[in-house]
Each structure stands twice: as structure tokens, then as C-alpha cells.
User: What shape does this take?
Amino acid sequence: MKIAAVLLTVLVFLTSCSTVRFNITDEKRINLFPLVSEANKTETFLLVTGSFPSIGELTAQAWLETDNSGLSLTVMLPTGQTLMQIYYNGKKTTVSPSSAKTVMFAPYVVADVQLCFTPSAVIEENLAANGLRYEETQENEDITRCIYDGDKLVICVKIHQNVFQVKNILRGYEYTAEILY
Assistant: This one.
């Protein structure tokens, strides 16, 4: 099954030394999760629909590529126009077009992708080292991953087969990303 192969490849892709830090809460900063050096190449096309405070409702397509050198995400409008490209090489993120808003936004996008695909142990270790709590539950094929600051829910991701629902309660955005192929 192609989706299982994509998920497995991305899971293997994501653990070494990350230096990109960002505010996951207003008071706490964490590193993006590290990359695994033996990753296989993955190419996945996503349909993304959601609501974001800074831009409102959005429907976009995204091309996600991972290999042992990093993560690349190209976000396109339904017309095919490129909205942004984000790269993460395990040490830094870059974004094009570059503006203050997109540069600040890039680590959050990478973190969301990683929260969907990174093995639980890596997520939990990183978050615990920064005073955050991680919980993962699984019921049948459904997986729910949540990050808490104390008792306060910060981010929750629900995974059902090839659909990822991301809700960042603190930052006020939510979206669904579906693997199309």
C-alpha cells in the first residue's frame, strides 16, 4: 500500500541535531525534530484545506519531498501558482518568497509536518526536555497526538489513514492535509 510506504519512509526520515528553535508556546521554545540520515526519498502530493488567522480560509495543494538531506514543501494555490517553498536541512529552515511573515511561519509548518510523521519517542523526548507533555492514543487505525503545556492543550493532530487533521489551539489555526498520491 503506497500510503503505508510513504508514512514509513517519512517516519524513518525524521532524527540527529537540529538547531532551529521556535516558540511552540508564548513562553517555551523547542528545536525542530532532527533528521535521520538513512532516509529513503519520499514524494507526496497533498490537498490542504484550513483556516488561518493571518490569511483566513485556504485551499492549497502541497508537494512534500523528503530525503536524507532534508525536507522540502512547495505550497501551491489551486490555480497552480506557488504560494511558498519551505526547506529544512536539519540545521536551518529557508523559505521562498522570503518575507518577515514567511520566515517566521516556516518553522511552524515544518513542525506540523514533523508532528504528523515523526516517531513518538523522538517527539516525546524533545518536548519533555522543554517542559512540555506529549500524549499519543490509538484506536483502531486512528492516531491522536497532543502536546500540552501543563494541563493546557497546545496542538492536537488526528491521523486517519491518509488524512491528517492539525489543530493549533494556541495559535488559532486548523487544517486538514490529505495524501492524494
The CA atoms of residues 100 and 180 lie 31 Å apart. The radius of gyration is 15 Å. The mean pLDDT is 82.
